Amino acid sequence: MSKRNFVILSVVVIASLFIASSIYAGAECPDMIKMDNPAYSEHTMGIVMFSHKRHFEGYKLPCGECHHDDSGQPRTDLKVGDEVDGGCIDCHGNPSRKPKGAKLSKSEMLEYHAEALHMNCKECHRKEKKAGKNAPTFCDECHPKK
Ligand code: HEC
Ligand code: HEC
Ligand code: HEC
Ligand code: HEC
After folding, report:
1. Which of 25, 66, 80, 120 is the most exposed place for a label (fewest CB within 10 A)?
2. Cβ neighbours of 113 (radius 10 Å)
3. Which of 117, 120, 146 to mutate to test the pocket of ligand 1 (most atoms within 8 A of CB)?
4. Using CA atoms, how far apart are residues 100 and 9, in angstroms rounded to an integer?
5. How many structural domains is the chain composed of?
6. Tens digits of per-residue pLDDT, 17-37?
């Protein structure tokens, strides 16, 4: 390797180390998330594997589609490496679906973790499906059979 190429290579290596450390200095932004929140005493359904990175990178969805602040306002400022305002369970704190047959307002529904998740995931998927995309809306497309 010529001296000049070696210098260029060194600069590239140092720059990429710098970029990597600046990413990892923030909160970890997982590629794949196993949705088995430990607050549930039991998962009655198969565990959903959520392709987090594919959603914001592949499907190009802004972070604020799913992450919001403590008043429910979308975090439009977020980027990879930033901290979020907590896990969904921190604010949608009841680890279950709503009681069968219960008539609840939207904000009462949102107290139930599984309802908040379903609302977030499925409302978008229904829209995407109408637009011809292959976004899952049936139980066993997200929850693998146990
Ligand atoms: C778009 C994906 C998706 C679809 C479709 C979906 N779910 Fe879920 N569901 C989730 C996620 C994500 C959670 C949260 C699990 C966690 O974080 O622990 C969840 C949680 C649950 C829970 C509470 C946890 C458990 O296993 O007991 C139940 C019950 C549930 N879903 C039932 C259903 C049923 C019934 C259907 C079909 C009518 C359905 N889900 C469709 C994504 C989905
Ligand atoms: C399609 C929805 C969606 C999009 C888009 C999305 N996320 Fe997430 N993200 C989630 C869900 C769901 C979780 C799991 C939260 C939980 O289990 O409580 C999560 C988890 C995280 C975590 C880990 C939190 C923890 O407590 O460990 C970070 C950090 C994060 N997301 C950052 C981002 C950033 C930054 C972006 C944009 C570049 C982004 N997310 C885009 C849905 C999304
Ligand atoms: C820091 C607290 C906090 C966290 C963390 C949080 N939420 Fe929320 N969320 C709220 C508040 C507050 C609202 C507004 C409630 C209302 O309208 O009654 C809301 C509203 C929602 C709504 C309704 C949006 C609409 O259509 O109006 C959904 C769906 C939702 N959250 C899902 C999630 C999911 C999924 C996560 C995790 C990725 C999450 N939330 C994390 C506080 C939080
Ligand atoms: C704002 C829109 C949006 C939200 C919110 C969203 N998704 Fe998706 N999802 C998509 C799109 C778009 C696709 C891809 C459709 C296609 O194939 O082009 C997809 C595909 C998927 C797929 C199948 C392919 C893959 O990447 O695994 C799963 C499973 C999935 N989503 C789970 C979830 C879960 C679980 C949540 C909630 C935590 C969620 N999604 C929230 C837009 C969304």
Report:
1. 25
2. 22
3. 117
4. 62
5. 1
6. 444 444 444 579 999 999 999
The tens digit of pLDDT for each residue in 72-84 reads: 999 999 999 999 9
72 lies in a domain?
A: yes
Q: Which atom of ligand 2 lies nearest, measured to the CA of 57? A: 38
Is residue 7 a part of any domain in this protein?
Answer: no
Q: What is the CATH classification number for the domain harbouring 134?
A: 3.90.10.10
Q: What are phi and psi of 112, to 5 degrees?
A: -90, 120
CA of 30 to the centre of ligand 4 (A): 15
Q: For residue 110, count other CB atoms closer than 10 A to its CB.
A: 18
Q: Which domain holds residue 111?
A: 28-142
The answer to whether the Cα torsion of 31, 34, 38, 40 is positive or negative is: positive
The structure's pTM equals: 0.92
